[in-house]
Design a protein that fits this description.
Layout: H1 3-12, H2 22-31, E1 41-47, H3 60-81, E2 87-92, H4 93-101, E3 110-111, E4 133-134, E5 140-142, H5 148-158, H6 164-171, H7 176-186, E6 191-192, H8 196-199, H9 203-207, E7 216-221, E8 240-244, H10 249-259, E9 263-268, H11 276-282, E10 287-290, H12 295-306, E11 310-313, H13 319-322, H14 327-333, E12 338-343, H15 358-365, H16 367-371, H17 387-408, E13 411-417, H18 418-427, H19 433-439, E14 453-458, E15 461-466, E16 470-472
Parallel strand pairs: 1-2, 8-9, 8-11, 9-10, 11-12, 12-13
Antiparallel strand pairs: 2-16, 3-15, 4-5, 5-6, 7-13, 14-15
Helix pairs in contact: 1-18, 2-3, 3-4, 3-17, 10-17, 15-18
Length: 498
């Protein structure tokens, strides 16, 4: 079945069973990256539990477990390419859910025993929960403007004071379609809640997302093979990855690469801010440096790119093109570079330049309408929707591209999409609402357990965080050279080796 047929099948036939073919679905995910489960050299096992783990209609735990196990397979394949032992990969589905959504619990990731602060969004009217706001024509929109710049532009568009009451009243003066279009033109995050049936008729779906791979790997140009040496301690020893990432999905790719031994440097602009819970979750393992858009700093960026194997990003739509950092340009100057991008609605189409987060993908694709109704949408009982999962899919693609480059050479572009991943989540099956509510927490298999944790000393203080929850037979993951570095604290330079 194609994606449209799978979505119609899933939405039209709610499930009242917890049975799930993990092996079959893992095979489909890995096939997108040219891999198989056997590439780990051993056995992949999913243990511990099954969805529903929370009172939600979607297989959040299964999606997280598939993506985590998939990157475990990809890392194991590189490990064997470099002379390492075959690996068994084991994933407890209950812990996979925690790793996926645990940052929102506010208790697994701590510094000096304290949870992250919400200082950047304190009293932000655009993050009031639930996220839905009613429009003049009786529809619901999600105006999720969580960063200071987005918040300012949204208030200017709505022409209202900075309060929840004023924002809600201003939105109620607009029809949903008009507000969504005006927001897109202003670079503001607003999405109309749609049913899945409505979304399948949108041009962004029919022209782009319907045929977009879950993990899109494209060879941009030829170059000499870049084999990875043997005799290393971790799968990505000697690999350098440069990031322009924030929020969750893009930064999660950097954390992943660092967890397997890469030297990962994330670049911020000096005026950037980040939500602390996101930073403590996904910036783990990466060094952090400031570069602005001045000519001297652009030269520094180019020197970093010249030494990089991977360049990953999830900046706002159009930013890479504005800065001359698209893959077609970079591969001319830096042959062999692998560029990994996290996109919202895909690389083309009428919504290509719309900004947003995974909740926007959930709003437009039908997830929120299916959790409730189109008239009264509901959020699942946790956040995020797919954010971390998207990053892990991006990691699978990046690792697969590194293997291809080692064998055949080439420059590669890897793309993953938040909305496309929402559609994949839906295609895994939609639970009957009563079944999900009754099953969640009813047995040990349907009850969440605490994640595995680690503690490290960092410049910020004593950090407690979640491990990746993956279990390998012998491969070590998470021996970070850097655990949690303050934003901008590091020099914009690669580590010296030897």
């Amino acid at each position: 079945m194609n994606l449209t047929e799978r979505l119609n099948q899933a939405v039209g036939n709610p499930i009242s069973s917890d049975a799930f073919d993990f092996g079959g679905h893992l095979g489909e995910v890995l096939k997108e990256a040219g891999l198989t489960a056997g590439d780990c050299g051993g056995v992949v096992a999913f243990t511990g539990g099954v969805d529903p783990l929370v009172s939600a209609r979607f297989r959040f735990g299964s999606a997280a477990a598939l993506a985590l196990a998939g990157k475990g397979v990809a890392a194991s394949a590189i490990w064997q390419d470099r002379g390492g032992e075959p690996q068994d990969v084991t994933m407890d589905v209950r812990k996979a859910f925690r790793r996926f959504a645990g940052f929102a619990d506010g208790k697994w990731e701590l510094v000096n025993g304290r949870p992250p602060s919400d200082k950047w969004n304190k009293r932000n009217p655009f993050v009031d929960m639930p996220f839905f706001r009613r429009t003049k024509d009786g529809r619901s929109v999600v105006p999720l403007n969580v960063y200071p710049g987005l918040r300012s532009r949204a208030l200017a568009l709505l022409n209202c004071p900075d309060s929840s009451e004023a924002v809600n009243s201003a939105i109620a003066e607009w029809d949903a379609d008009d507000l969504e279009e005006a927001a897109a033109e202003a670079g503001v995050v607003v999405a109309k809640v749609r049913s899945s049936e409505q979304f399948l008729t949108e041009a962004q779906y029919t022209e782009v997302l319907a045929d977009l791979p879950l993990i899109d790997i494209e060879k941009i140009s030829d170059s000499e093979p870049a084999p990875l040496s043997n005799g290393v301690k971790q799968p990505l020893d000697g690999v350098r990855a440069l990031g322009m990432s924030h929020v969750i999905a893009g930064s999660g790719i950097g954390r992943d690469l660092a967890s397997f031994g890469a030297d990962v440097l994330n670049i911020w602009r000096p005026d950037n801010v980040e939500i602390q819970s996101f930073y403590w979750d996904t910036q783990v393992g990466m060094r952090s440096a400031y570069l602005d858009e001045s000519e001297p700093d652009r030269l520094r960026l180019d020197r970093l790119l010249a030494g990089a194997d991977v360049f990953f990003s999830n900046r706002h739509p159009g930013y890479l093109a504005q800065q001359g950092l698209e893959a077609e340009e970079l591969c001319v100057r830096h042959p062999g570079l692998i560029q990994t991008e996290v996109l919202l609605h895909g690389p083309s189409g009428p919504w290509k330049l719309r900004p947003g987060f995974d909740e926007i993908g959930a709003a437009v694709s039908g997830i929120f309408a299916l959790e409730g109704t189109l008239e009264h949408p509901r959020q699942p009982p946790m956040l995020p929707i797919v954010d971390n999962v998207v990053g892990w899919l991006g990691t699978i693609g990046t690792l697969a591209a590194l293997r291809r480059r080692a064998r055949e050479g080439g420059s590669y572009r890897v793309r993953v999409s938040l909305t496309r991943t929402c559609l994949w989540l839906m295609s895994l099956g939609v639970f009957d609402r009563d079944f999900a509510q009754g099953a969640a927490g009813s047995t040990s298999e349907h009850t969440l357990i605490d994640p595995d944790l680690f503690i490290a000393q960092t410049p910020l203080g004593t950090y407690q965080g979640m491990t990746d929850q993956l279990q390998f037979s012998s491969l070590r993951q998470g021996d970070f050279a850097t655990v949690l570095s303050p934003m901008g604290a590091d020099e914009p330079a690669w580590r010296t080796t030897g």
